[in-house]
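Extended Data, panel c. Modelled sequence:
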Amino acid sequence: MQSFWPEALVVHRLDMATSGLVIMARSKEVQRSLSDSFASRTVEKLYAAIVAKDVQVLAERQWHKVDAPIMSDWERRPLQKVDFASGKPSLSLYRRHEDQTGVPSGCTKIWLRPVTGRTHQLRLHMSHIGHPILGDELYAPPSLASGSHRLMLHATELRFVHPILMHEILVNTPPQFDAA
Protein backbone atom coordinates (compact mmCIF):
# COMPACT_ATOMS: atom_id res chain seq x y z
CA MET A 1 0.00 0.00 0.00
CA GLN A 2 2.76 2.42 0.89
CA SER A 3 4.25 2.13 -2.60
CA PHE A 4 1.02 3.77 -3.90
CA TRP A 5 0.22 5.92 -0.84
CA PRO A 6 3.34 6.57 1.25
CA GLU A 7 1.21 8.16 3.98
CA ALA A 8 -0.98 5.02 4.41
CA LEU A 9 -1.52 4.10 8.07
CA VAL A 10 -2.71 0.82 9.56
CA VAL A 11 -6.15 0.98 11.20
CA HIS A 12 -6.68 -2.70 12.09
CA ARG A 13 -5.09 -6.06 11.37
CA LEU A 14 -6.03 -9.53 10.22
CA ASP A 15 -4.31 -12.73 11.31
CA MET A 16 -1.44 -13.29 8.88
CA ALA A 17 -3.14 -16.36 7.38
CA THR A 18 -6.56 -14.66 6.93
CA SER A 19 -7.36 -13.16 3.52
CA GLY A 20 -9.65 -10.26 2.76
CA LEU A 21 -10.34 -6.63 3.52
CA VAL A 22 -8.19 -4.29 5.59
CA ILE A 23 -8.87 -0.58 6.10
CA MET A 24 -5.98 1.88 5.83
CA ALA A 25 -6.08 5.60 6.61
CA ARG A 26 -4.25 8.41 4.84
CA SER A 27 -4.02 10.80 7.81
CA LYS A 28 -3.47 10.49 11.56
CA GLU A 29 -6.90 12.02 12.29
CA VAL A 30 -8.73 9.50 10.10
CA GLN A 31 -6.64 6.65 11.52
CA ARG A 32 -7.55 7.70 15.07
CA SER A 33 -11.24 8.02 14.23
CA LEU A 34 -11.43 4.66 12.45
CA SER A 35 -9.42 2.96 15.22
CA ASP A 36 -11.92 4.37 17.73
CA SER A 37 -14.76 2.93 15.62
CA PHE A 38 -13.17 -0.52 15.77
CA ALA A 39 -12.56 -0.20 19.52
CA SER A 40 -16.17 0.86 20.16
CA ARG A 41 -17.42 -2.03 17.98
CA THR A 42 -19.32 0.19 15.55
CA VAL A 43 -17.56 -1.36 12.54
CA GLU A 44 -19.52 -4.38 11.32
CA LYS A 45 -17.33 -7.24 10.10
CA LEU A 46 -18.40 -10.28 8.12
CA TYR A 47 -16.16 -13.26 7.35
CA ALA A 48 -16.65 -16.39 5.28
CA ALA A 49 -15.03 -19.67 6.28
CA ILE A 50 -15.02 -23.34 5.43
CA VAL A 51 -15.23 -25.44 8.57
CA ALA A 52 -14.96 -29.12 9.38
CA LYS A 53 -18.05 -31.27 9.61
CA ASP A 54 -21.49 -30.84 8.18
CA VAL A 55 -23.39 -27.99 9.81
CA GLN A 56 -26.73 -29.08 8.27
CA VAL A 57 -28.58 -28.73 11.55
CA LEU A 58 -28.20 -24.98 11.39
CA ALA A 59 -30.89 -22.91 9.76
CA GLU A 60 -29.24 -20.90 6.97
CA ARG A 61 -30.67 -17.57 8.11
CA GLN A 62 -30.32 -18.03 11.88
CA TRP A 63 -27.27 -16.72 13.73
CA HIS A 64 -25.80 -18.89 16.48
CA LYS A 65 -23.53 -17.73 19.31
CA VAL A 66 -20.16 -18.83 20.58
CA ASP A 67 -19.72 -17.04 23.90
CA ALA A 68 -16.37 -18.29 25.22
CA PRO A 69 -13.78 -16.10 26.99
CA ILE A 70 -10.28 -16.07 25.50
CA MET A 71 -6.80 -15.56 26.92
CA SER A 72 -3.22 -16.16 25.82
CA ASP A 73 -1.88 -19.68 26.19
CA TRP A 74 1.46 -18.45 27.57
CA GLU A 75 3.22 -21.82 27.40
CA ARG A 76 2.22 -22.32 23.74
CA ARG A 77 2.36 -18.80 22.30
CA PRO A 78 1.09 -17.56 19.86
CA LEU A 79 -1.87 -19.80 20.70
CA GLN A 80 -4.88 -18.52 22.58
CA LYS A 81 -7.21 -20.64 24.69
CA VAL A 82 -10.74 -20.60 26.02
CA ASP A 83 -10.64 -20.00 29.76
CA PHE A 84 -13.92 -19.44 31.60
CA ALA A 85 -12.12 -18.37 34.80
CA SER A 86 -9.56 -15.84 33.50
CA GLY A 87 -10.33 -15.17 29.83
CA LYS A 88 -11.61 -11.89 28.39
CA PRO A 89 -15.23 -11.88 27.18
CA SER A 90 -15.37 -13.02 23.54
CA LEU A 91 -18.45 -13.41 21.39
CA SER A 92 -18.76 -14.67 17.80
CA LEU A 93 -21.86 -15.28 15.69
CA TYR A 94 -22.05 -17.85 12.91
CA ARG A 95 -24.55 -19.29 10.44
CA ARG A 96 -24.56 -21.60 7.47
CA HIS A 97 -23.67 -19.92 4.16
CA GLU A 98 -26.41 -19.99 1.52
CA ASP A 99 -24.09 -21.33 -1.20
CA GLN A 100 -22.34 -24.65 -0.53
CA THR A 101 -21.02 -24.99 -4.11
CA GLY A 102 -17.48 -26.35 -4.30
CA VAL A 103 -17.20 -27.08 -0.56
CA PRO A 104 -15.21 -30.25 0.15
CA SER A 105 -17.10 -33.28 1.40
CA GLY A 106 -17.46 -33.29 5.17
CA CYS A 107 -17.12 -29.50 5.40
CA THR A 108 -19.49 -26.52 5.46
CA LYS A 109 -19.15 -22.93 4.30
CA ILE A 110 -20.33 -20.50 6.99
CA TRP A 111 -20.64 -16.78 7.71
CA LEU A 112 -18.94 -15.41 10.83
CA ARG A 113 -19.45 -12.13 12.69
CA PRO A 114 -17.01 -11.33 15.48
CA VAL A 115 -18.75 -9.16 18.08
CA THR A 116 -15.55 -8.73 20.07
CA GLY A 117 -12.12 -8.66 18.46
CA ARG A 118 -9.73 -10.96 20.31
CA THR A 119 -6.62 -12.47 18.74
CA HIS A 120 -7.51 -15.63 16.78
CA GLN A 121 -11.10 -15.32 18.05
CA LEU A 122 -12.95 -16.82 15.07
CA ARG A 123 -10.40 -19.60 14.62
CA LEU A 124 -10.45 -20.55 18.30
CA HIS A 125 -14.22 -20.26 18.71
CA MET A 126 -14.95 -22.51 15.75
CA SER A 127 -12.43 -25.08 16.95
CA HIS A 128 -13.89 -24.83 20.46
CA ILE A 129 -17.35 -25.88 19.23
CA GLY A 130 -15.99 -28.74 17.12
CA HIS A 131 -15.89 -27.03 13.70
CA PRO A 132 -12.25 -26.01 13.13
CA ILE A 133 -11.52 -23.99 10.02
CA LEU A 134 -10.03 -25.89 7.10
CA GLY A 135 -6.31 -25.15 6.68
CA ASP A 136 -5.91 -23.80 10.24
CA GLU A 137 -2.41 -24.83 11.31
CA LEU A 138 -2.93 -23.52 14.86
CA TYR A 139 -6.33 -24.82 16.01
CA ALA A 140 -7.33 -27.64 13.64
CA PRO A 141 -6.17 -31.25 13.90
CA PRO A 142 -3.37 -32.11 11.41
CA SER A 143 -5.74 -33.80 8.94
CA LEU A 144 -7.80 -30.60 8.63
CA ALA A 145 -4.82 -28.27 8.80
CA SER A 146 -3.34 -30.05 5.78
CA GLY A 147 -6.74 -30.21 4.03
CA SER A 148 -6.05 -26.90 2.31
CA HIS A 149 -3.01 -24.97 1.09
CA ARG A 150 -4.20 -21.98 3.16
CA LEU A 151 -6.53 -20.94 5.96
CA MET A 152 -10.10 -20.90 4.64
CA LEU A 153 -11.04 -17.69 6.45
CA HIS A 154 -11.77 -14.50 4.49
CA ALA A 155 -12.72 -11.00 5.72
CA THR A 156 -15.43 -10.41 3.15
CA GLU A 157 -17.31 -7.30 4.32
CA LEU A 158 -16.77 -4.14 6.39
CA ARG A 159 -19.45 -1.56 7.16
CA PHE A 160 -18.50 1.70 8.90
CA VAL A 161 -19.17 5.44 8.99
CA HIS A 162 -16.53 7.33 7.03
CA PRO A 163 -14.99 9.87 9.44
CA ILE A 164 -14.81 12.69 6.85
CA LEU A 165 -17.79 12.00 4.58
CA MET A 166 -19.95 11.07 7.61
CA HIS A 167 -22.01 8.48 5.77
CA GLU A 168 -22.01 4.73 5.89
CA ILE A 169 -19.53 2.89 3.72
CA LEU A 170 -19.91 -0.78 2.79
CA VAL A 171 -16.98 -2.56 1.17
CA ASN A 172 -16.94 -6.22 0.27
CA THR A 173 -15.00 -8.81 -1.61
CA PRO A 174 -16.15 -12.37 -2.17
CA PRO A 175 -13.96 -15.18 -0.88
CA GLN A 176 -12.05 -17.22 -3.42
CA PHE A 177 -12.07 -20.61 -1.73
CA ASP A 178 -10.34 -23.40 -3.57
CA ALA A 179 -9.48 -26.08 -1.03
CA ALA A 180 -7.16 -27.93 -3.43
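Helices lie at 28-39, 121-128, 142-145. This feature is highlighted in the accompanying rendering.
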